Amino acid sequence: MSVTRETVAKIASLARIKMGEDELDRMAPEFNQILAWVEQLEEVDTSGVEPMTAVIPQHLRLRDDVVDADPLTGGGVRDEVLANAPAAEHGFFGVPKVIE
User: Is the pTM value of this prediction over 0.90?
Assistant: First the structure.
């Protein structure tokens, strides 16, 4: 497959990219080099390779969502937390009324 200068002009027009005459002349060989490289990639035998999303294994970097995982901050300390609140009512933080 070969890309001509006219094809590059048509692609630029469809993409609404303004290109000068010198840019059109320069882009056609670049497109052809890219297409040649893609054709070269198609020669690689990947029949024994399983599809993957990354080259290296990835692990979830977030901790598991476990209740009471941290004894200092993980629950069961409601009264200690509310002890620092300026106002507490019925086990909740008391806040000023914002809607009349």
Answer: no
d(CA 8, CA 52): 33
Give the number of other Cβ atoms within 10 Å of residue 35's Cβ: 13
Contact by Cβ (8 Å): 93, 87? yes
Between CA 7 and CA 12 the distance in angstroms is 9
- 68 and 74 in contact (C-beta within 8 Å)? yes
Tens of pLDDT, residue by residue over 4-45, are 999 999 999 999 999 999 999 999 999 999 999 999 999 999
Which residues, listed in sequence order, are joined to residue 89 by a DSSP beta bridge? 92
Question: What sign does the dihedral 41-44-45-50 (CA atoms) show?
Answer: negative
pLDDT tens-place string over residues 43-90: 999 999 888 888 888 887 887 777 776 777 667 778 888 998 999 999
The β-bridge partners of 93 are: 88
